[in-house]
Design brief:
By secondary structure, this protein is mainly alpha-helical. About 70% of the residues lie in helices and about 5% in strands. A two-stranded antiparallel sheet has the order 1-2. Strand 1 and strand 2 form a beta hairpin.
């Protein structure tokens, strides 16, 4: 679906490049009413998908942190339960860090390619 959308967008943007000029100055126009988009539409789709994934990552990390906290409290001094709770908490924090680093990397890539991938306006 996404690849078809990108190919259709590229096709629509390049239709003006294949319009023909006939002798006598007449032109053949490309087909009308074809949706056009370009990099702006692709960046909006990417931005929305990325923000939804970031929100989901933060929500899941908070759920796992809460679950690990409850598991820690109810461990009752049992070393294996305490280690399992500590591991869950550690992995949830690592997941949060990875999600925010990915957000930062996408921002840097957008900056270098002059595409506004993460604007919230």
């Amino acid at each position: 679906m996404c690849l078809a959308f990108i190919l259709q967008t590229l096709y629509c943007n390049n239709m003006r490049l294949i319009s023909l000029t006939l002798p006598g100055g007449q032109t053949i126009q490309p087909p009308q009413h074809i949706p056009s988009g370009g990099i702006d539409v692709v960046s909006k789709v990417f931005r929305n998908a990325f923000i939804i994934m970031l929100i989901a990552c933060v929500a899941l990390a908070l759920i796992f942190m809460t679950y690990a906290g409850i598991q820690w409290i109810t461990s009752g001094g049992d070393k294996t339960k305490l280690q399992a709770a500590r591991a869950k908490l550690t992995y949830a924090i690592i997941g949060l860090i990875v999600a925010f680093v990915a957000f930062f990397i996408v921002g840097i890539i957008g900056f270098f390619f002059k595409v506004n991938l993460l604007s919230f306006a």
